[in-house]
Amino acid sequence: MTQALLGVGLAALVALIAHRARTLSTSGAVAAFAVGAIVFGAAGWRGAAVLFAFFIPSALLSRRGERGAPRSGWQVLANGGVAACCALLATRFGAAASAALAGAFAAASADTWGTEIGTRAGQTPVSILSFRPVAVGRSGGITLLGSLATIGGALCVALVAAGAGVAPLLGVATGGIAGAFLDSLLGASLQGLRYCPACDRECETLRHECGGATQLRRGLSWMENDAVNFAATLCGAIVAALAVR
User: Fold this and answer.
1) Domain coordinates of the chain in residue numbers?
2) 146-160: per-residue pLDDT in tens?
3) What is the pTM of this model?
4) Which residue has the higher pLDDT, 183 or 16?
C-alpha cells in the first residue's frame, strides 16, 4: 500500500513537471500520470528507474529538436501503455513480464533517439525497404547516425534495467532494437502516407500543416504514427520476454 501511494505521488510530480516544462500537453500529462502510477506502484523503484531511463533522455531530445511540440495523451500511451500493462503482469508472472516492461521502454527509447538524432544528422535518409532517398523526417527513413542512435537508445534502457536487476542487458537491448526496426518497416510500408493537394506535398497526417485535408496515397488510413509506436513497443516487450525464458 505504501509503495502504491508513493508511486502515485511520484507519478503526479513527474507529470506536473513535464507539463510545466511544456514537454507534455494536458492530455499527455494525464496519460503520463496514469502510466507512471502503474509502473511505480506495481514495479517499485526498479520499474521507475527503467521508466526514467526512457523518459528523461527522450524528453530532453524532443525539447532540443525541431519536433518540440508537447506530447499528447495518445503519444504517451502509444509509447508507455504496453510497459504499464507489463508492470501489472509482473506482479503475477515475474521475470518474463519484468523483461517485457524493460523491452517496451527500450523500443520506445530506441525509436525516439533514432528519430530525434537522425533527423538532425544532416544526412539524406533512405527508405529501409527500397534504400531510395526520402524526405527528412519521413517514417521508414533511416540514416547511419540515426541507426547508431537507435542502438544507443535501446542500450540506455537496457543498461539501467540490468543494473536495477529487472532483466538481462542483452535481452532488453535486443527487444529495443527489434521494436525500432519494426517501427521503421511499418513506417515504410503500412503507415499511411498522405498528400496535400493545396500545397502539392506529401505528409503523414489527416490535415496538413496548412490546415487542408489530405488524401491517402499509400498504406492503411488508420495506421498512423501512434499505432506504429504501439506495435513497436509491443514487439520490444515480446522479444525481451522471450529472451529470458
Assistant:
1) 2-243
2) 999 999 999 999 999
3) 0.91
4) 183
